[in-house]
Amino acid sequence: MKLLEERISKDGVVKKGNVLKVDSFLNHQLDIKLYNEMGKEFKRLFADKNITKILTIEASGIGIAAITAQYFDVPVVFAKKSQSINLDGSTYNTKIQSFTHNRVYDVIVSKKYLSSDDHVLIIDDFLANGCAVNGLIEIIESSGASIEGIGIAIEKGFQDGGKSLRERGYQVESLAIVESMNDETGEIIFRH
Ligand code: 5GP
User: Residues 64-110: pLDDT tens digits?
Assistant: First the structure.
């Protein structure tokens, strides 16, 4: 998506450790016009799918998922990072290794909001090694719902997450794929 690539080139900051900072429009301050265009594009890319729910993970996925959901006219459920796993059986649970915070989170979704009747579109801001998306897939599989696709704002194509998800047969649509980035020069190259 040209608009997103242009914005990343203009305002993205390449940090050490393969981290791309996009705080000025995606992760801290949110450019809602841009979000709106991203939502529209996800709708176009998954137009043939019968989607009943969008699943994302807090915090950065929520804004993108919420705006995208308006185009699909479905609810958004976000997986919560929890201090303690609920042992009463009322939640689906998994563990997710955070790329940016270098720690493992317990993540939960209430069984009330995801069932075997659902057809789910996963949405997230970044795809790197795939830990976040794989955790969401595990949760969906526990619920018996079907996975219709995975929509990502920014995929870092030089990390393995996207490749392995596509090899497993998932439809992964990333609005911008970073082929390489250099923390010394600040240069960002996109894959087309
Ligand atoms: P993964 O789980 O695929 O390794 O990483 C994806 C998650 O880590 C996303 O939910 C995102 O919040 C965070 N993340 C991974 N790489 C980056 C990055 O380069 N920049 C930012 N801002 N977040 C990232």
Answer: 999 999 999 999 999 999 877 777 889 999 999 988 888 999 999 99
Q: What does the pLDDT look like over 109-149, one tens digit per residue?
A: 999 999 999 999 999 999 999 999 999 999 999 999 999 99
Backbone angles phi, psi at 22, to 5 degrees: -130, 40
Nearest-angstrom CA–CA distance, 140 and 61? 16
Tens of pLDDT along 22-65?
Answer: 999 999 999 999 999 999 999 999 999 999 999 999 999 999 99
Residue listed under structure tokens 């250099």? 182
Pick the CATH number of 2-190 from 3.40.1170.60, 3.40.50.2020, 3.40.1360.10, 3.40.630.30: 3.40.50.2020
Pocket around ligand 1: residues whose beta carbon is below 6 Å from it? 19-22, 27, 60, 99-100, 124-132, 156, 161
Domain-by-domain residue ranges, the chain? 2-190
Say if residues 129 and 152 touch (Cβ distance below 8 Å): no
59, 61, 66, 68: CA torsion to nearest 10: 170
CA of 101 to the centre of ligand 1 (A): 9
Residue to mutate, 100, 104, 152, 160, ligand 1, most ligand atoms under 8 Å from C-beta? 100
Residues 6 or more apart whose Cβ sits within 8 Å of residue 3: 34, 37
